[in-house]
Write a structure and sequence with these properties.
Shape: rod-shaped
Structural class: mainly beta
Distance between the termini: 69 Å
Oligomer: single chain
CATH topology of the largest domain: Jelly Rolls
Strand content: 35-45%
Order of helices and strands: EHEEEEEEHEEEEEEEEEEEE
Helix content: under 10%
């Protein structure tokens, strides 16, 4: 088909109802119609039919709390549900060909942060903003011992819960390594004095919780008996501070 020069192409604007009632036979092919209340742009095609403009063909706006799937699933589609409830939408609609955006009556987009924030895509692991699980590093030991490695990936601090059967002298030291199964070494942190200080605490208290901040991905807890015959249990919980 030869290229045609079209004259008198006009841009129309009105509500969806006004455009639907307009006599489009008065418009020339290629003219556009913008629905001011829906934000959808339509174009008069060569057959004289009013269709969604190419940039709008994959957008469907739905009012109310329920709708029917009346779109072509062959192309990715975004459905804006205006003033409706997401849970009223047939779950089968989310079949990989369409995405649903829920918009309230004020024009605000509702966002579910639980799904919007994903550690797969974010530099901060939002799944681990709270505290991790509790690991028993030492269970009723009576002599100096070093725990197995504890996975603290995604966390920057640990809490140690220490339970002693008697108020006798023990020392608790945190060792770390940046790789699982590697060589664990003592950790030094910058003290308030500006000098490096060993991440360790001497304790002769029956029960206490210690907090250490600034740890590598893997740690071990060294419990050193200084004096006495007390039994000691140490539990570790990673956290973010």
């Amino acid at each position: 088909m030869a290229v045609k020069v079209m004259q008198g192409i006009t841009r129309y604007i009105g509500t969806a109802a006004e455009i639907a009632a307009y006599d489009i036979s008065r418009a020339n092919i290629g003219s556009t119609f913008f629905e001011s209340d829906t934000g959808i742009l339509k174009i008069l095609d060569q057959s004289g039919a009013l269709v969604n403009a190419p940039s709008e063909s994959s957008v469907v706006q739905v009012s109310g709390s329920n709708f029917e799937k009346t779109i072509d699933a062959a192309a990715p589609t975004i459905v804006a549900v205006v003033g409706g409830k997401y849970d009223s939408i047939d779950p089968s609609y989310d079949d990989g060909d369409a995405g649903v955006i829920r918009i309230n009556s004020k024009g605000e987009v509702a966002v579910n942060l639980a799904s919007a924030l994903d550690s797969t895509y974010d530099s901060i692991n939002v799944n681990k903003q709270g505290k991790g699980g509790v690991t028993t590093a030492h269970s009723a030991i009576t002599d100096t011992a070093t725990s197995a490695e504890i996975d603290c990936r995604g966390y920057n601090a640990i809490m140690l819960e220490i339970v002693q059967s008697a108020a006798e002298a023990w020392t608790y030291t945190v060792q770390g390594c940046m790789a699982s199964g590697g060589t664990f070494v003592d950790i030094y942190e910058m003290a308030n004095t500006g000098a490096l200080a060993l991440m360790t605490v001497a304790s002769n208290t029956l029960n206490r919780i210690l907090v250490f901040k600034g740890i590598p991905d893997y740690v071990k807890i060294v419990a050193t008996e200084v004096a006495g015959t007390a039994t000691v249990t140490v539990k570790v919980q990673p956290c973010n501070l």
